[in-house]
Amino acid sequence: MFPVFFNIFKYSQHKNEVYLDLSEDSSLVYILNRTEYTLDRIDRKILSALRGNGRLTVAQLAEEVGLSSSPCWTRLKRLETLKIIEGYTVNVNQKAIGIHEVFFIEITLERHDDEMLENFSEALADIPEVVEAHLVTGDYDYLVKVAVKDADHYERFLRKKLYSIKGIRHTRSTFALRPLKSANTADLMLIE
Fold first, then answer.
1. Model confidence over 88-114: pLDDT tens digits?
2. H/E run at residue 124
3. Of 27, 55, 81, which residue sits at a domain end?
4. Handedness of CA 66, 88, 36, 32 (dihedral sign)
5. Domain HTH asnC-type, which positions (predicted)?
6. Which of 32, 81, 93, 151 has the fewest CB atoms below 10 angstroms from its CB?
7. Which of 81, 110, 129 is the last residue of a domain?
8. What share of the chain has pLDDT > 70, as a percent?
């Protein structure tokens, strides 16, 4: 028996599994293991199109990827439910709002126990100038991207905010001259 699909989309999550109920009579449940989900060509087209314009309507998206609206909507909801699409954002021209400088900071901590890493990560998350922060391998522990108005504001950020966090052993700052490429994800149409 093949299910008849409607615009009904219920799900619940338990551990790694997402249960999707797309059937007319709610008797058919699809179980997808999030760690094993593989994007197909259409999924990649949907993601690529939305990266270019996150405000596309379902009808516009469907036309761009070569589907009718209903299957496109179903795929879109599946990608959202599986947290492959985590949200929709706006790209802000930082210079237009007075944010002119970007710095990258390499940070080394005094200790590497769980408590120190957790406390430092939480403190960084609370600082509005911190645009990105990554726990990394190599010569330092964190790579942090900071956006500020100018060098004076950066100095104030260091003294009043960053250096007030306990546990920092060493920092090294690098000033960004200009961005060469900026994207929040890789181009999925080119990566297989």
1. 988 888 899 999 999 999 999 999 999
2. helix 114-125
3. 81
4. negative
5. 39-100
6. 93
7. 81
8. 77
Cα–Cα distance measured from residue 25 to residue 166, given in angstroms and rounded to the nearest whole number:
57
Residue at 51 is within a domain: yes
At 96 the pLDDT is 93
Write out the two tokens for 8: 């009904």
**What CATH number corresponds to the domain at position 148?**
3.30.70.920
What lies within 8 Å, CB to CB, of 71 at 6+ separation is 62
- If one counts the domains in the chain, the total is 2
Residues 9 and 65 in one domain: yes
3-state helix, strand, coil in the chain (%, to 5): 35, 25, 40
Tokens of 149: 């108005």
For the chain, how many residues are written? 192
